[in-house]
Amino acid sequence: MKKGFLLSIVMLLTASLFLAACGSGEDSGSGDKPEFMNMLTGGTSGTYYPLGGELAQIISDETGIDTTAQSSNASADNMAALADGSADLAFVQTDVASNAIEGINSFEGNAIDNVQAIASLYPETVQIVTKADSGITSVEDLKGKKVSVGAPGSGTYVNAEQILEVHGMTMDDIDAQNLDFGESTGGIQDGNIDAAFITSGTPTGAVEGLSATTDIAIVPVAEDKIDELIAKYPYYAKDVIAEGTYGLGSDVTTVAVLAMLAVSDELSEDVVYDITKAIFENVDKISHAKGAFITKESALDGLGIDLHPGAKKYFDEEGISK
Description:
By secondary structure, this protein is of the alpha/beta class. The protein has 2 domains: 146 residues, 3-Layer(aba) Sandwich (D-Maltodextrin-Binding Protein, domain 2); 134 residues, Periplasmic binding protein-like II (D-Maltodextrin-Binding Protein, domain 2, 3-Layer(aba) Sandwich). It has 10 helices and 10 strands. Strands 1, 2, 3, 4, 5, 6, 7, 8, 9 and 10 form a 10-stranded mixed β-sheet that branches. Helix 2 links the parallel strand 1 and strand 2. Helix 2 packs across helix 9 and helix 9 crosses helix 10. It is globular.
């Protein structure tokens, strides 16, 4: 009797553990939802960081996944971090993402094959910033000058390289400085550098800060050079920095690429679906000026890399296709 009773208890406990395991398996099968995610952005004085903070909060609130926005060296480093698993989500320029997947430019011999797109977000304007009295009025005038071009391999660096290229120049024709946005504008203000390439949504915080104390100019890119650049690198588009931005006295013609949100393909379809839905169903909660550009209708523009199945599922439901 006693042995039979003990045996019954053991069997009941075993059955309970089995059922609990089955229940746990059903939960994990709903997308292997992580507790935490980290989103890499860019430097604290650019656009990625403050906008990333808002998106991370929306994702946290809507999905229940604690998502943190972290500053970084931006596009190229962010792609590498997604590839090696040290980041879950990241802001990346569309051109840099395309280069990484193709294994060209700064990713020569190091192609990345495990990163996919969630959506493009807004135009990132290539701004060549200088003091209004610097005497630099064209890209050609940069020759021989101290010019910040961002970190080697960064999106800004590649943009600078390609814009110089269509003007018949290389990095050897300038005194290239590898500074972040804050260091660049500080260097212009202090007179330590003459100009800086800054690829970021306008208005950019670092440039606004500089313009508050210093009269600045944005060097235009000539129409024929824009055409040449787009013909060679189709991910560029013509852009205009409007009069009044940074106190500018007139519109300035330049070029832009797109900012996108990229993701590790390790995240499940369900999780990425929830992330995508969270962002695009809550754009009205974004206070940053670039929130106005984040729309379902433009989300698939200029991606250049494959869409994650979770994001595709969301946009398919919304009737939006690439």
